[in-house]
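Retro notes, structure queue

What went well: the backlog is down to a handful. What didn't: a couple of records were mislabeled last round, so from now on we paste the full input next to the output in the thread. Example, using MerR family transcriptional regulator from Lacticaseibacillus baoqingensis:
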Amino acid sequence: MNIKEASERTGVPAATIRYYEKEGLIPNIDRSAAGVRAIDDRIIRRINFAKQMRNAGMSIESLQRYIHLFDAQENNLEAQRTLLAEQLAIMEEKRDDLQAAIDHLHWKLAHFDDHMVATEAELRELESQHLDETLRD
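Corresponding output:
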């Protein structure tokens, strides 16, 4: 199949497939005599794998390392496992940060009338005082 068909099948834009190839996230794609990429199921699986790992938050650099380990002839399972564990720790930290922000917003909403309104009134007063001082100078 050509790159357009591969894009439709994987949901990955053609430009991203080209980028994945350029960055070594997928193997070099064979081309026809006319220079058209000839994408087979093996490449489709690699595109889907790269897509899934990027969706899991893995950086290009980490994914390149993982792919390099996978493509190497020797057994690199422990190094691959380590990279995945590092990625999991990164994603869990991001999740925890996001959860803390969500919890904070829940608190702000629950205490909007007794906290936010008063806090914003104080901020407006400080802004007004600052503006008055600026105009006097």
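Agreed that this is the format going forward. Reviewer comment attached to the example: The mean pLDDT is 93.
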